[in-house]
Amino acid sequence: MSTVIGVQGEERHEYTKAESRSLRTRSLRLLGSLLHPVRRMLWATLAIVVVSTAAQVAGPAIIAYGIDQGLPALLAQDWMPVGLAGLAYVLTGAVGAFLIAAYIRLAARISQAVLIDLRTRVFLHTQKLSLEFHESYTSGRIISRQTSDLDAIRELLDEGINQLIRGVLYMVFTAIALVWLDWLSGLVLLAALVPLAFLTRWFQLRSQAYFRRSRVASAKLIVQFVETMTGIRAVQAFRKERRNEREFGELVEDYRDVNAKVLALFAIYNPLLNLMGYAAVATVLLIGGFRVVDGGIEVGVLLAAVLYTKRFFDPMEELAMFYNSYQSAASALEKISGVLEEEPSVPDPADPVDLWTASGDVRFDGVEFAYTPDRVILPRFDLDIPAGQTIALVGSTGAGKSTLAKLIARFYDPSSGTVSLDGVDLARLHPKDLRRAIVMVTQEAYLFSGSVADNIGLGRPDAPFDEIVRAAKAVGAHEFIESLPNGYDTDVNKRGGRVSAGQRQLISFARAFLANPAVLILDEATSSLDIPSERAVQEGLQTLLKGRTAVIIAHRLSTVAIADRVLVMERGRIVEDGSPDELIGGGGRFAALHSAWQDSLV
Ligand SMILES: Nc1ncnc2c1ncn2[C@@H]1O[C@H](COP(=O)(O)OP(=O)(O)OP(=O)(O)O)[C@@H](O)[C@H]1O
């Protein structure tokens, strides 16, 4: 394949030429679209840099004039040339200072505008991407995109570009000024360029590999950190700290090791660079000194030539560094543009069908489903769930219950066939109507940081406070909410640190009750609640289910009792379908499960 699409191949180190080209084009397209809105400021910045650098470079030439023309005139009582030189020198300094101030402000505005634009695009886009993307692209990676990658781009914008443009212009202007002032000294400088170019190229080639390794190592550190912290409960429960410490230690060691190598390279490059600078200055001084004695050039010109030669080497070190910040930013841009290129696998319909009030009739027609083409999870099947029916989905782990539920919520589209609500294919239903009509309550009952009322209010953002309370009362959550320190205003920490698992479920029931969907899908928590909590949750559940179609992934057989119909799934197929009583009496799998459950109660 000659192109890399989206985030695939992101972890690879090598690309074919055609792939590299396609990645570069993609990055440049993104960069172009980011810079387009700020193009006027960019041109203004460039003009400022050209003028300010020219003003800076004029300094030594003015000094040469002051010495060579001004001093003899001064001896003849003529103050004019020295005065002019002094004034011109101060003026160039003032112009330079003023322009640099303008430059810093403009450059900061450009970099801020570009970064905010990019950050927003990445956030909005990843939020829009379907569940399929998020189930395979870990949160550590997405955080890397938003943090270290954006940082690399910020560094390039804030410092790299500045170094490049100013450094290159400075060197070019200095070389021109020197050749113009005294071509022989200019020749010495040009001769010094040859070893300089070799040295810098050597440094770049050696450091490039190290910098790449350093970036990989720091990305791994972030991923490890994020995964540990998001899974901190499991980490502590399974005493994984030691192993994490060891793994983290190895990553840190790797990172330290590669950075030490980079520093070692700098320890060679910088001194050699300095040495070359000194040698060039000494040569210019030596040759120039003889020529001053011979009367070939004047002292002021020699002084200017020495200053120019010395200054010529100043930006070199930064220029060598630019290459690396450029490399980091380029690879960051490649990855970010990959994420931005990903399309939602469950696209919004081009011409959506409106469905104002759904009755809740769900149908699967010839549906087949596979996450990956090589493994069918749900073989072709039909299923009709009439409006208002409560279905309990049971079956062993991995049987495909959640997958079936995700198809109803249209987190995924079927590989073939259609899932429809009131006869409208979900893929054609207006996304707003779909989200209003079908709500899925997941096992973890996620609570966002904010108050309890905010969390319930998510079900219907325009709901007044008394409706929120009504919803909480309906599902039996009101009492415990009232007993919280600030009642409905209590801040629930992320993942509901302050409320128990059962209470969290009740809050999510209240949220769903407020949303009042025609179809409710509920992934029942597997965690065993204590009996009073379980009873409270069961009661809340019954109120919640009234008057709507419900599909419950039932882990507790007590839940099955309140269902109108039970579907038993086995390896992606519905193997039993009937009312709880029918199935218990039928002697099939469900009957076996049920009698095992009853035995466990005795
Ligand atoms: N995102 C995914 N990508 C690929 N395969 C998946 C994905 N999610 C689930 N599967 C596979 O699909 C099959 C059905 O999984 P599913 O989660 O639907 O089972 P389940 O019956 O809900 O199980 P459980 O009761 O354990 O939650 C499993 O074999 C699982 O490995």
TrEMBL record:
Single GO BP term: oligopeptide export from mitochondrion
The ABC transporter domain, residue ranges: 362-596
CDD domains recorded: ABC_6TM_Rv0194_D2_like (cd18546)
InterPro entries per record: AAA+_ATPase (IPR003593), ABC1_TM_dom (IPR011527), ABC1_TM_sf (IPR036640), ABC_transporter-like_ATP-bd (IPR003439), ABC_transporter-like_CS (IPR017871), P-loop_NTPase (IPR027417), Type_1_exporter (IPR039421)
Keywords assigned by UniProt, alphabetized: ATP-binding, Cell membrane, Membrane, Nucleotide-binding, Transmembrane, Transmembrane helix, Transport
One Pfam family here: ABC_membrane
Gene Ontology MF annotations: ABC-type oligopeptide transporter activity; ATP binding; ATP hydrolysis activity
The name this protein goes by in its record: ABC transporter ATP-binding protein
